[in-house]
Sequence to fold (342 residues):
Amino acid sequence: MNEKLELLKKALNGIEMKGDAMDTAESGAGSNYIDTGMASTVLQKVRDAQSVLSKLPTPLVMPTASWVVPTEWADPTFYATSENTAGPWTEYTSSNAGTGSITLVSKKFSAVTYLSGELDEDSIVSIRPYVEGKIANAYTELLDKVMINGDTTTAATWNVNLDDAAPTAGTYYLHMNGFRKAAIDNSKTVNAGTLDSTDFRAARKLLGKKGLNPDKLLWILGSDVYYKLLGLTQVETIEKFGTAATFVNGRLATVDGIEVVTNGDVPLTEADGKVSTTAGNNTLGTAILVYRDDIITGFKRELKTNVEYLPQVDQFRISAHTRFAMKIKDTDSCASLINVTV
Fold:
């Protein structure tokens, strides 16, 4: 067995990936690189990434492909009562401690890429650490994109990612419904326009009691909305925002005590928060607010990769697969600001 293949297998052992064919002749897919050795594992890179998934409750390990998860619902009710002094006694009004369940259904995501034997031998930089990094990036981005943009609608209208055309079969977002979909379908949107601090509080209000505790909430912003937020007068200057003023340190970690994360996969959209097939129509920003405890995730299979050498074509094939599930508990678990002028 080729020694380099053994090294590659060891470095990628227990993991999986998605991609395209790469060789020494294809610019942008291998012609610029070379070979040395593998660095740390892909999974460690994923764990270290500041992803949306890392801000949510720990994913469950699913024993079956479809798994019923017990959930907490309403509390028992207290009533005003009196002492029972003589019989026949009056029965006190009873109530239940609410219970429920959510069914997590794992969905499979796969990717395959090829490396030519020449690329493995001739690249001027270490090709395997490069591929390893690309696996980690693609995997982390996939999980966040699915949670943010997921929409199972296959019709020619109403999918939040493609409002005026039918999505292509196999597109990543078709496996499950995500945060943007939940906010729009459940009418939990704020038409923000020019953007003000009151818009963020209006979104919290849409979540009812769940919007009261900032520690339980998470803002997910696209880059355009984040830059707009940095310039709000309420957070920009020291006299209004102290040493955390954005003009001083160039970043904003919280809004109203709620953690802020940025994600490049929150798209620009039309005014209704959905993406048009006409790119020029997508000019408005979105900000997503989620109640963390209501986002339930799980893995039936974490990322796994298989490396094969194909001697008949002198190529390495790296195939990657994961089985991931996500469920949003309630209709008041997600809200969003839409139609943000950026």
